[in-house]
Amino acid sequence: MSLRSVALAAPVLLASFLLPASRAQDAAPAPASKAAPRVAKAALPKVKLQRVSAGVTLRRPVQVVFEPGDSTRMYVLEQPGRILILNPGDRDAKEGKVFLDIHGQVNSKGNEEGLLSLAFHPDFAKNGRFFLFYTAMDAEKKRRNVLSSWKLDPDTRMGDPKSEEILLSVDDPYSNHNGGTVLFGKDGMLYLSIGDGGAANDPQHNGQELGSLMAKVLRIDVDRADAGKPYAIPSDNPFVGKQGARPEVWASGLRNVWRMSFDRKTGELYAGDVGQNQYEEVDIVTKGGNYGWNPREGLHAFAGGQPGNAGTDYVDPVVEYPHDEGVSITGGYVSRNPKHPQLEGVYLYADLVSGRVWGIRCEGGKRVAGPEIVAQTKNHLPTSFGEAADGTLYMTTFEGSQDTRAKGAIWRIAPAE
Fold first, then answer.
1. Distance of CA 352 to CAs 67, 228, 294, 378, Å?
2. CA-to-CA distance for 180 and 387, rounded, in angstroms?
3. Contact 286, 315 (CB under 8 A)
4. Buried b / exposed e along 184-203 (16+ C-beta atoms within 10 A)
5. How far is CA 72 from the centre of its chain?
6. Residue 246: DSSP 8-state
7. What ranges do the domains of the chain cover?
8. Hey, how many other C-beta atoms are within 10 angstroms of the C-beta on 259?
9. What are the beta bridge partners of residue 347?
10. Which ranges in 227-353 belong to alpha helices (H)?
11. With b meaning 16 or more CB within 10 Å and e meaning fewer, what string describes 52-89?
12. Which residues does 233 contact at the CB level (< 8 Å), separation at least 6?
């Protein structure tokens, strides 16, 4: 996940975990840096943030999610392991209903660890299934990234704490870079982002190794099961049958995707990929795409980076920004709210530390407008975005700091005019 404590320090601290000299010397030459494409600056509308459920005390909220087809039941994920239900239209609410509390099995010791993402099955109204991604620690004190399936309790209509079925458990060598967005596409498949494993500089070179699930976006079928697995591999995944590759992999070379979302109109998958020393980036993730980490950071050669078996045909980000503008991207959503035609097609994203919120427009996978700052938060650290069934967009924030005791807030996004 991107809520790294080092992000609040001077940028030089972001390189505090360095590759051993021997590894750097053995690395293949990195490709030359590319110039960022110039795009005509088209005016994008400013946005305003309207506080939601201000009377409810939240602890480190990292995501808001809605049931399919619903805009009134907002599920708020708190990083320590609790999920609350709020009605964003209830201005007098003082507390939320606890949908599920799994803090006892969640490892949230590290700043980037905890309960990270929730996704409802597209047929949730019928089957009551939902999916969580979180970090855990096993009996041997080894860290794990866990994707699991859960069900509603038929009596309480809340999450059944005894219903967990673990679908995927990935050993995690370090506490940071857990990635952590789980969501469904229009194809009914489940997509999951997992970070590169942590430390810094991708010391295990997971980004370019297709045999690793780390530094990837995965795609699986949770409605079927292959032999020996609690899920099935879609036959059209790009690396099915490729020797040395995990068939779950959809895209590679992504350092630490912190929030990705589908454009509900075009079906394009947007991802905010947290950078290392100098650049943050937004990618449109496509089947089999390789986004360059760690031979590249954004459009630029990364010292010590090594190619692997994922190839060297790297997909360029649609936008990047340097660390004098922000140091930890929070990916967002493309606005498709019919009530806000001014924002139609604008992809909104933010930076955790600088508090800036940007907008861009893309057509055919290429940026045609922006980036442009559309809002500036002050003492509100943007941690995630969410989208209701009616297209209304929301943003979650930590208030004032990343301290583990910090409270959080939820904001509705609307045109400033």
1. 26, 40, 22, 11
2. 17
3. yes
4. beeeebbbbbbbbbbbbbbb
5. 23
6. -
7. 37-415
8. 32
9. 334, 360
10. none
11. bbeebebbbbbbbbbbeeebebbbbbbbbbbbbbbebe
12. 220, 221, 226, 240, 247, 248
The pLDDT tens digits of the residues spanning 312-360 come to 999 999 999 999 999 999 999 999 999 999 999 999 999 999 999 999 9
Reference 81, options 134, 119, 148, 156; nearest CA is 134
CA distance 230 to 232: 7
Amino acid at the residue 26: D
Annotate 349-366 with DSSP letters as a single string: EEETTT-EEEEEEEETTE
Q: Residue 124: phi, psi to the nearest 5?
A: -55, -40
Tokens of 184: 């469904």
Distances from the Cα of 385 to the Cα of 49, 223, 396, 398, 411, angstroms? 12, 27, 6, 13, 9
Give per-residue pLDDT as tens, 120-144.
999 999 999 999 999 998 888 899 9
Q: How far apart are CA 124 and CA 99, in angstroms?
A: 15
Global model pTM greater than 0.90: yes
DSSP 198: S
Q: Mark 103-124 as b/e (b = at least 16 C-beta within 10 Å).
A: eeebbbebbbbbbbbbbbbbeb
37-415, CATH topology level: Neuraminidase (2.120.10)
Reduce the DSSP state of residue 341 to 3 states and report it: helix
Cβ-contact 112, 106 below 8 angstroms: no
* Bridge-based pairing state of the strands 182-184 and 190-194: antiparallel
